[in-house]
């Protein structure tokens, strides 16, 4: 059996409420939080459980989040969530975070490819836009290697850690994705 959600290194899956402690662990690293979004105030164990129990999106909703599980370790190593869904123009975005202990192992790259395969090949989106902090060279490099194109820069866009930061705008079309990666196939039994 094959699954669109499974690659060579990772499986994209729901995050179980009892895994709240892993999200708490990831949120202890301010650099990971800032690279993904921004610092959030501390949350209680019950707050993390409520967040996970509420679920993010439904099976028919293009705005959803999921966990990234390492196949080798059998544990959650990160998460992602789609956002800014524009069905009219066929454009979406996402955010992704990998715990600091699990970075630079190819987990983010593979999770992004799996997510894009689903959004382009199954949900009919034609473009993905991402915003990456200009200082986050690791993420900029990953996205460039995957085939994203720099489309612009929003100067002094975000304020944290006592100063303003630029955001680099990158995008990938379905055609660019298909030229570099597989949209999948249908196999009959």
Give a description of the structure:
Keywords: Transferase. It comes from Actinopolymorpha singaporensis. One of its GO terms (cellular component) is cytoplasm. Residues 10-175 form the N-acetyltransferase domain. By secondary structure, this protein is of the alpha+beta class. The chain has a single domain, classed as Aminopeptidase. It is built from 6 helices and 7 strands. Strands 1-2-3-4-5-7-6 form a 7-stranded mixed beta sheet, with helices on both faces. Helix 4 links the parallel strand 4 (91-98) and strand 5. Helix 1 crosses helix 3. The longest helix is centred in the middle third of the chain and has 15 residues, at 107-121.
Topology as a string of helices (H) and strands (E): EHHHEEEHEHEEH
Count of folded domains: 1
CATH homology superfamily name: Gcn5-related N-acetyltransferase (GNAT)
Which sheet architecture does the biggest sheet show? 7 strands, mixed
Mean pLDDT: 87
User: Largest sheet, order of strands side by side?
Assistant: 1-2-3-4-5-7-6
- How many beta strands in the DSSP annotation? 7
CATH class: Alpha Beta
């Amino acid at each position: 059996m094959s699954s669109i959600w499974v690659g060579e290194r990772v499986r994209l899956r729901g995050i179980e409420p009892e895994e709240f402690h892993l999200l708490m662990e990831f949120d202890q690293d301010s650099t990971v939080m800032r690279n993904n979004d921004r610092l959030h105030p501390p949350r209680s164990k019950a707050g993390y459980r409520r967040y996970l129990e509420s679920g993010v999106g439904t099976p028919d909703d293009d705005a959803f989040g999921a966990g990234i599980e390492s196949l080798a370790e059998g544990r959650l190593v990160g998460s992602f969530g789609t956002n800014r869904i524009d069905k009219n123009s066929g454009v979406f975005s996402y955010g992704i975070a990998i715990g600091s202990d699990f970075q630079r192992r190819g987990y983010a790259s593979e999770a992004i490819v799996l997510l894009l395969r689903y959004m382009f090949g199954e949900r009919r989106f034609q473009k993905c836009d991402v915003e990456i902090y200009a200082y986050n060279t690791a993420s900029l490099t990953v996205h460039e290697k995957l085939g994203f194109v720099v489309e612009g820069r929003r100067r002094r866009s975000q304020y944290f850690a006592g100063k303003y930061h630029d955001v680099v705008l990158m995008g990938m079309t379905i055609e660019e994705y298909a030229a570099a990666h597989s949209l999948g196939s249908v196999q009959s039994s």
